[in-house]
Amino acid sequence: MNAAAxxxxxxxxxxxxxxxxxxxxxxxxxxxxxxxxxxxxxxxxEESLAWADRGIRVCANEPWCxxxxxxxxxxxxxxxxxxxxxxxxxxxxxxxxxxxxxTWTPEEAVHAARVGWVNRDxxxxxxxxxxxxxxxxxxxxxxxxxxxxxxRLQAWFAVRNALK
Length: 164
What we know:
70% helix, mainly alpha
């Protein structure tokens, strides 16, 4: 598979006729990631962002691939900066993803992390890990985040290391 395969997949998926297994979809994502980085190294910002958009779309609506798309978006924002309402560079997408469905305060998350390890609660531990990975992404681009989002995340950044 190559770059043309990614484009073909996205065209077919847009028409609703494309179904790939996990490995094929992840391979297309890896092609997109490599093309994004190559374009960036070559100084071609627009091509790099086009490949980032393709990679994010390859992972769209696939929960097992979602983290890859979030990492790709983080890399692009770190590389090119935040841009409001941009398909790839809008950092608020990452902030919204972090807060989506979040029912804990930072203190409750730290307590849950301790309880999860003591009780070996797999679901609790997986939630903690997801939160910690999301915080690592957000910390990487915290200077790029709008002021309001940095303020909302301040307490979470303070407790990140306590999360397992």
